[in-house]
Design a protein that fits this description.
The complex is a heterodimer. By secondary structure, chain A is α+β, with helices and mostly antiparallel strands. Chain A contains 22 helices and 29 strands. The two termini of chain A are 69 Å apart. The N and C termini of chain B lie far apart (54 Å). Chain B is built from three helices and eight strands; from the N terminus they run αββββββββαα.
Chain lengths: 888, 285
């Protein structure tokens, strides 16, 4: 009953007892069983806390990293918490996470220096508080609201009563909601990977680690962990409050799922872990001096962000600034004389300036995926061959936005699978990826989030990554044949719009425009946004008045943001196709970027650079090398430094520039990682002034010597790179000398004739790049199709905290992937007999009263005559019976 | 002496008889209320609610964040159940279901995006869902709300142990809940799932739930309303007062006068007493 009706619910002890009994039997609680995640590795700034809850229970919590934080993933692990439970039996409700009792909510909160975090400053989406569940916090008592909303207050003091959609702080729209929901397994332990946001990602709402204004101290933030527990009602509260608390805590799921974490009765159990943030990427204190610019390849960005602060803090500081761009643009600027030092994987033309190329870093492209299987468990390993990537690049999957009744959307793709997961070729290579049920192979269950698995998230800038990707595809016989029009084994053909696509290319294209004229005869109207139907009963409505390629193609100007801002938060760049009420109200349809995908239902794939993917813990696919093992099965190579070194060794030296070019034939022969790319710095050896020339030379010397030592600290080489082999470092130092002296050299060749002679650099191993850095290695999933032990059997530990892939149960990574359970009908219990009982009681007592002679004993009374008359048939029958018995 | 023993037994019986008689009247009254009077009451309430909801549908008011329990929400038409515009009210406690049909407050309103859950009585108060189990896939359910008129198509009947239907976010669905078993002898709750297949929105229709509210244990399927105890005790006190007053009247004015004055009052008290008593029985009965 509605709590707004005061006095309508007077309580008696008995009533409370009955309510409790009914509540206990009304909801069936199914304990969740799944494997305990392993403990975090000891990080340098890991924090472990003992926790004592308000009811006296104790637990422990560990945060893997709390200092020098960037926008990155930390792992939170706990033990001694209340096991999460999935409720069943509430007919008609779904949305698995909302039905989970006792989850753990992890939030980031801003707070004043040295003070505890306030709920108003925490990045939580669900902010409704029921006063009954808010005992620990003081609440204005009269008049008591049914529920109240805690507004969110940003760093400038602006208050947001509603944080959903565009009503919230602007950065919530850009980066999605910040909180994560973890689950606790049966033994009380649990774990989740939490993406930390610095002030760069949340400038308006939290501003962690950044100064709100010049000269002011940086904002402080904490990680706040709120375990939602069975509510023990405050013994100090008044009897009435306790009763209300009991009622709430025992009866209502909404006060025990993740939406209730801000309610005082849960909030008081929070654990606050103060966080310390590193300066922004590539930060140097402003000394007023001009900085030497380097421009180009985003593959080097992570390394530069490590080197630049270290160089400017050295005793003899060198101040650099990095401008990321597509390599083509950087080279154009260099040719035009506007830039003096550019990074790229292909030669730069200096125009009239003699130019040398110096090896700077070895990294590469990767294909990263965020994918949950049919159990809601994160897939950590994929095998992709060049033909599958070619299919994705050419928009050859129909996508689920296309249906038979809209021939202009998919008629030209007839017979092709809907997306990657539905492709038999993919399924054969990845038998461990179980498809979600339904017509489509996509892992997503909603209609309005595009179809991210039908295409890749692609960088839109022109440069060397598209070139490398398409070189690899071109070198693959099957893929090249597919692009030329040959169908694959299951009959899938290339999107005809990509006929004659001349590879290699410097930039990716979205050619499919799915065009239909708005007034075409077969376009049916009006469109019903909720039913998702048009007047003609279509399942989908035609796209009219909408620029479809814009809505469906997923391009990012920066390849790094594909990892950091798309895949890391599982938020597609596709826009939602359906608006809700706007269209009904006759307003123009507004498209917006899709919401982040739900945990347990994620599916997205994109081209990334290895270093950024590793920083955000993205899983990277093993790519086909193009070679085959003895048995004829294709060989796949995971991105490991060992596999990258093989590719470098198999390269060809370009005599004009001294650069090593990847030879994809050798990649196939050696089982190397085909995404490997070498990045060179190009600088003129004539025309630079002394200071500039010396600066670039010094930078190169730092980058190829100190900067090639692998390590996590500033100035070292982050994961995601292969250290330069010693001979290439020597080449770079020689080039640096040419730049310093401006000797007019046009090429500095490597000191080896054949890259095969290169010595292995430090840190070459078989550890795959990508995946969650704090995750213990998972065992290899079954279904390794290649049979090549050295190349493809490299386990790719992923972000799923589950350490045991054999278990059937979902991991505790916040996946809302618990399947709905069977119907749990409610039993009527004793009430089945209530009315028959009443009838029996009434009839019995009436009969007793009659028998005792109280009724109808006096034949003279009116009632007596009535009874007498009514009893006449009985008397006749009795007499007849007696008569019959007497005759015998 | 056998004669005197018999007389003694009869004397004891006679002294017990008024108590037995009252228990008998009380218990049988309960049955009469369940079988007859509750239907009369529901019929009357439906008529009143129908006026209210019809006015609301004709001229929708403001969208409420929280709808008070007992507010009429929608008109439900199910040909197979003989329902033609039966009014659904907000809330699913035993008391809310005195008019037959209630909407569970933690589900969206019928026709809004999401799953809306409606409870209906199996045997009492008009028994709108008496034959719920008889619905079969394909049967149509019409719902008219201030937001428009909606047609749902039955997917099937769900009993204990049946899998819950998989639903995608953004679906619009209806779940009807009642009890199964012989009339007045409910055993278990049953569920009928239906999916929106057609609709006609009214101007200014709201298709997203404004807010969902938490429900108490007394609003779940088969739950009793423990608040009934309090009401029951109050009406029992009223009954005592009425009986005392009747007795006083009988002595002062006479038997006939006492009956004329007392019976209507007594009937009213008993009616409320039974209503309170049935709040203690499952809401789907």
């Amino acid at each position: 009953m509605n709590p707004t009706r005061p006095g309508a619910r007077p309580r008696r002890v008995l009533a409370a007892a009955i309510a409790f009994t009914i509540a206990a039997s009304a909801v069936l609680l199914i304990p969740l069983l799944h494997p305990a995640p392993a403990r975090a590795q000891d990080g340098t700034s890991a924090v472990t806390r003992d926790v004592t809850f308000s009811d006296g229970a104790t637990g422990e919590i560990t945060v893997s990293k709390t200092e020098d934080l960037r926008n990155e993933i930390v792992r939170v692990e706990w033990s001694g918490f209340t096991p999460s439970m999935q409720t069943g039996g509430i007919a008609g409700s779904y949305g698995a996470l909302a039905q989970t009792r006792y989850p753990v909510l992890i939030l980031q909160c801003a707070h004043a220096p040295g003070e505890a975090a306030q709920r108003e400053n925490c990045m939580a989406t669900y902010r409704t508080v029921h006063p009954q569940a808010d005992l620990a916090e003081s609440w204005p008592t009269a008049p008591e609201p049914a529920s109240a909303v805690l507004p969110f207050t940003d760093i400038e003091g602006t208050s947001y009563p509603d944080v959903f959609g565009s009503n919230g702080p602007s950065d919530w729209l850009t980066y999605g909601y910040g909180e994560r929901v973890g689950l606790t397994v049966a033994d009380g332990t649990g774990a989740i990977d939490f993406p930390i946001r610095t002030g760069d990602e949340s400038p308006a709402s939290l501003g962690c680690g950044r100064s709100p204004a010049a000269g002011e101290p940086a904002s402080e933030c904490s990680l706040v962990i709120v375990p939602v527990r069975p509510m023990t009602c405050d013994p100090a509260a008044s009897a009435r409050e306790r009763l209300k608390c009991n009622q709430t805590s025992n009866s209502s799921l909404a006060t025990h799922n993740y939406t209730s974490a801000l309610m005082g009765s849960h909030w008081r159990n929070r654990i606050e872990v103060p966080l310390q943030f590193a300066p922004p990427d590539g930060y140097c204190e402003d000394t007023g001096q001009s900085r030497l610019p380097v421009m180009g390849s985003e593959l080097t960005a992570e390394a530069l962000y490590s080197w630049i602060p270290a160089m400017c803090r050295a005793d003899d500081p060198l101040e650099m600034t990095y401008l990321s761009s597509g390599e083509n643009l950087a080279r154009q600027m260099y040719t035009g004389g506007e830039e003096d030092f550019v990074l790229g994987s292909r030669p730069a033309d200096g125009g009239d300036r003699p130019t040398v190329h110096a090896p700077a870093a070895i990294s590469g492209f990767g294909i990263a995926f965020v994918l949950d299987d049919s159990d809601g468990k994160q897939v950590t390993q994929l095998h992709l061959n060049a033909r599958l990537v070619a299919k994705l690049l050419t928009q050859s999957y129909t996508g689920t936005f296309c249906s038979g009744s809209e021939p202009w959307l998919c008629g030209h793709l007839e017979g092709n699978p809907t997306d990657l997961l539905a492709d038999p070729e993919f399924q054969a290579l990845n038998p461990h990826v179980t498809k979600r049920s339904g017509n489509h192979g996509r892992g997503l269950d909603t209609f309005d989030r595009g179809d991210p698995m039908a295409s890749l998230v692609l960088p839109s800038s022109l440069g060397d990554v598209p070139d490398a990707v398409t070189q690899w595809i071109l070198a693959d016989h099957d893929a090249a044949a597919f692009l030329a029009g040959a169908p694959d084994e299951s009959g899938m053909t290339v999107n005809p719009l990509f006929t004659g696509w001349a590879l290699p290319v410097d930039g990716f294209e979205w050619r499919d425009n799915y065009t239909v004229a708005a007034d075409a005869a077969d376009v049916t109207k009006p469109y019903d946004a909720v039913m998702k139907t048009c007047g003609g009963g279509l399942n989908y409505c035609p796209y009219t008045g909408v620029n479809l390629p814009e809505a469906l193609s997923q391009s990012s100007a920066s390849i790094r943001t594909i990892a950091s801002r798309v895949l890391a938060i599982a938020q597609s760049l596709q826009v939602t196709r359906f608006s809700t009420t706007q269209e009904i109200a006759g307003q123009p349809l507004v498209l917006k970027r899709s919401d982040p995908q739900d945990m347990g239902f994620r599916n997205m794939i994109g081209i990334v650079d290895l270093a950024t993917a590793d920083r955000y813990g993205l899983n990277l696919a093993a790519l086909s090398t193009g070679g085959a093992d003895d048995a004829g099965a294709p060989v796949f190579a995971a991105p490991t430094t060992a596999n990258m070194f093989k590719a470098v060794q198999g390269g060809v030296i370009d005599e004009d520039s001294g650069m090593i070019r990847i030879d994809y034939g050798e990649v196939a022969a050696r089982g190397a990682y085909p995404g490997t790319m070498l990045v060179y710095g190009a600088a003129p050896t004539d025309g630079l002034d002394d200071a500039t020339a010396a600066g670039y030379a010094e930078f190169l010397e730092y980058a190829v010597i100190a900067g090639q030592v692998p390590g996590a600290s500033q100035g070292r080489l982050p994961t995601g790179y292969l250290s330069l082999p010693p001979q290439l470092a020597v080449q770079s130092v020689q080039a640096a000398e040419s730049i310093r002296t401006q000797d007019g050299a046009v090429v500095v060749p490597p000191p080896v004739d054949d890259p095969d002679d290169l010595d292995p650099p430090p840190g070459v191993d078989d550890d795959p790049i990508g995946g969650s850095p704090t995750t213990p290695p998972a065992s290899v999933p079954t279904g390794n199709p290649s049979g090549d032990a050295t190349s493809s059997a490299v386990p790719n530990p992923g972000a799923a905290p589950s350490a045991d892939p054999t278990s059937e149960a979902p991991p505790g990574s916040g996946d809302g992937a618990f399947q709905t359970t069977a119907t749990q009908a409610e039993d009527a219990g004793w009430a089945t007999w209530a009315l028959p009982g009443a009838l029996a009681l009434g009839a019995g007592t009436l009969a007793a009263a009659m028998a005792s002679g109280a009724i109808g004993a006096d034949p003279a009374s009116r009632l007596g005559r009535l009874v007498h008359a009514a009893a006449w048939p009985v008397r006749r029958l009795a007499a007849a019976g007696a008569n019959l018995a007497g005759r015998r | 002496m056998p004669g005197s023993r018999k007389a003694a037994v009869r004397a004891v019986a006679r002294s017990l008889t008024p108590a037995l008689l009252r228990i008998s009247v009380g218990a049988l009254g309960l049955v009469v209320f369940a079988v007859g009077l509750s239907w009369v009451q529901a019929h009357r309430e439906q008529a009143v609610l129908d006026d209210a909801i019809s006015a609301e549908i004709a001229d929708p008011g403001a969208v409420l964040e929280s709808i008070p329990a007992g507010t009429p929400l929608a008109k439900l038409t199910i040909g197979e159940l003989g329902l033609d515009g039966a009014v659904v009210v907000q809330g699913t406690t035993s008391a809310d279901l005195d008019s037959g049909l209630g909407h569970r407050r933690d589900s969206v309103l019928p026709g809004q995006t999401g799953v809306s859950v409606l409870y209906g009585r199996q045997s009492m108060f008009g028994a709108p869902f008496a034959d719920l189990a008889g619905l079969s896939a394909g049967d149509e359910i019409g719902v008219v709300t201030p937001d428009g008129s909606f047609t749902f198509t039955v997917d099937g009947v769900r009993r204990d142990g049946d899998p819950l239907p998989a639903r995608a976010e953004g679906d619009t669905a209806l779940v009807l809940v009642s009890a199964e078993g012989n009339p007045f002898r409910p055993t278990k709750s049953i569920y009928v799932d239906a999916t929106l297949t057609d609709r006609e929105l009214a101007a200014g229709a709201v298709t997203e739930a404004a807010s969902l509210e938490a429900v108490g244990a007394d609003e779940t399927a088969m739950a009793a309303d423990p608040g009934g105890w309090f009401t029951l005790v109050l009406w029992l006190q009223a009954l005592v007062v009425a009986l005392v007053a009747m007795s006083w009247t009988r002595h002062r004015l006479g038997r006939r006068e006492a009956l004329i004055m007392g019976l209507p009052a007594l009937a009213a008290v008993m009616w409320n007493l039974y209503e309170a008593a049935f709040r203690l029985l499952p809401n789907l009965l």
